[in-house]
Structures are given as C-alpha cells and as structure tokens.
Design goal:
single chain; about 210 residues; alpha+beta; Nuclear Transport Factor 2, Chain: A; five-stranded antiparallel sheet; 3 helices; 9 strands; globular
C-alpha cells in the first residue's frame, strides 16, 4: 500500500513539476506510515528519494501526504508534496523544445513511444516526458488505495495547432494497472508553455485491453 501511495505522490509531482526537460523517478521509498482517520479515510505519510533521470548525479528528498477518501471512488486522493532542495533548471531545454515545435511546418504526429524494442528516438524524448506529465495527472486523479498505475507507452500523439501561445498535444497513452494487470488506453489532451508548465484540459478513459 505504501508503494501505491508513493506512485500517486510521484504522479502528482510529475504533473506539477514535470515537463519536456525533466524526468522524475522514484529512487527509494525511505519511510512510510499510515493513519486511519475515522469517517474520512486512510492517510499515508511518506518520505521519498527522487531522481531526475536526465540528471543522474542528483537526487532530491521529498515528503508527501496522500489521503484516500473512504468509500468515494470518484474523488481523487488529496496529495501534498514538499520537495527538499532544488530540482535542476529546465528553462533552456524547455525554450528550445518550444521553439522547435513552434517552427515545425506541419504538426508533429508520432506513434508507439517507446517502440517494441524499448527505443525512443531522441527528438521524441521530450514528447514522452510530456506524456509523463499528462499521465501523472491521470494517475493522481484515478488512483485508489488498491491500484497502481504506470505509464507503459504513448500509443499515439498528435500536435494540434492553436491560435494562442500554448502547445497542444492530443495523446492516447497506455496505462498499466499493476494490481489487475489491465492495460487501459486513455485519451488525454495536454497544453504546455515554458512559463506556465503543463495542464490537462481533457481526458477520457477507454475500455481496458485485459491482462498483459
């Protein structure tokens, strides 16, 4: 259960602080305890060690509280996360990615990231990391105490031209639910801007593919 709560905290943090230039992963769950709050739910207090995979030498510690509400399957867990220390700045990488996408003559379209051999072309790595931001939101919003979601693959992504300054990507991501072993396709639209970060504007769950 503590590992499932840690996955929720990581998803939440990816949504808030992730981007095309930052790949947050859980390196270690240092400490966890659960508190049962009468008529409210179960609250997990976690101490996590995180790493940015793009900056291997540095880890940051983080404390998180994840509260699952009793009986209410439709309400997302309440999450609070405090990062101790500084995450590496991604300002330059973000701006570079933004400029590159804005200058494309036709909208970016891609499928199967990573491919069946686990490969991600370097130019699609930021697109995959943005899918991590989007799936972070999905994991936070849809997790219960009995689920553990993991982004398995970007099935497809299509950039949509906009009249404002945001970049828009329409994704279909495959989320692997580790407990039931279901693979769930999810349509999710993410808007992103280097100054404002990412936000999910729409999402729709599709029927699962069944185990494996």
């Amino acid at each position: 259960p503590a590992a499932r709560a840690a996955a929720v905290a990581l998803g939440y943090l990816r949504y808030l602080r992730g981007g095309p230039g930052r790949a947050l992963e859980l390196r270690a769950l240092r400490r966890a305890r659960r508190q049962d709050i009468d008529d409210v739910g179960h609250k997990y207090y976690l101490e996590l060690e995180l790493e940015d995979v793009l900056d291997k030498d540095r880890t940051v510690n983080c404390t998180a509280e994840v509260l699952y509400h009793l009986g209410n399957k439709s309400s997302a867990p309440d999450v609070q996360v405090t990062v101790q220390g500084e995450l590496r700045s991604t300002e330059e990488a973000d701006q570079e990615f933004y400029n590159r996408i804005r200058s494309l003559e036709k909208e970016l379209v891609a499928e199967n990231i990573p491919d069946s051999h686990g490969n991600v072309p370097p130019e699609l790595e930021p697109i995959r990391l943005l899918a991590g931001v989007a799936s972070g939101y999905l994991i936070w919003q849809n997790s219960t105490e009995n689920t553990k979601f993991h982004l398995a693959q970007v099935k497809r992504v299509k950039q949509v031209k906009r009249s404002d300054e945001d970049l828009q990507f329409d994704y279909v991501v495959l989320l692997h639910e580790m407990v039931s072993q279901e693979v769930i396709p999810w349509e999710v639209t993410v808007l992103w801007h280097p100054r404002r970060g990412g936000r999910v504007s729409r999402d729709r769950r599709q029927p699962p593919h069944g185990p494996g």
